[in-house]
Design a protein that fits this description.
globular; 2 helices; alpha+beta; Alpha-Beta Plaits; 7-stranded antiparallel sheet
């Protein structure tokens, strides 16, 4: 049942890595990011997390889906990322109760940019809820 305090937010993080990164390294960064999002949402007043999911997709190095269900919960992952990742997309979905979509966006966007900005990375945040996918921010690191 969807109630007035339900929020859903989705963000696409496009990433380019030079030098390429390892699959374990990227997978660990995504797990860390989703855990930080869950904790921050809990700290901000989320009363129930439906899920916080992130799916990494690469052109030729595999995929990995990660999910967190509680503010202090451990992430669960499936799929595999190979080493040598030069480009990847991460789609983040946050479904929860107790925060507005704007509050969720204010938590997710800066954390995604910070956590996915590995040395030598270019990171682009794309609002996938917009009709044509508006670029929110582009950062070289």
């Amino acid at each position: 049942m969807i109630t007035p305090d339900f929020s859903a937010y989705a963000l696409k993080v496009e990433m380019w890595f030079d030098p390429p990164v390892g699959g374990r390294e990227l997978g660990a960064k995504v797990e860390e990011l989703l855990s930080k999002i869950a904790r921050a949402c809990g700290d901000a007043g989320a009363i129930l997390i439906g899920h916080i999911k992130g799916v990494v997709d690469t052109p030729d190095k595999g995929f990995r889906a990660t999910s967190v269900l509680e503010p202090q919960g451990r992430p669960a992952s499936r799929g595999e990322l190979q080493d040598g990742i030069a480009q990847a997309d991460l789609v983040i979905n946050v479904l929860l109760y107790g925060l507005t979509k704007g509050q969720v966006r204010e938590i997710v966007d800066p954390l995604a940019e910070k956590e996915m900005s590995l040395p030598g990375a270019r990171v682009k945040l794309v609002n996938i809820e917009e009709k044509h996918g508006t670029m929110v921010h582009f950062q070289d690191h």
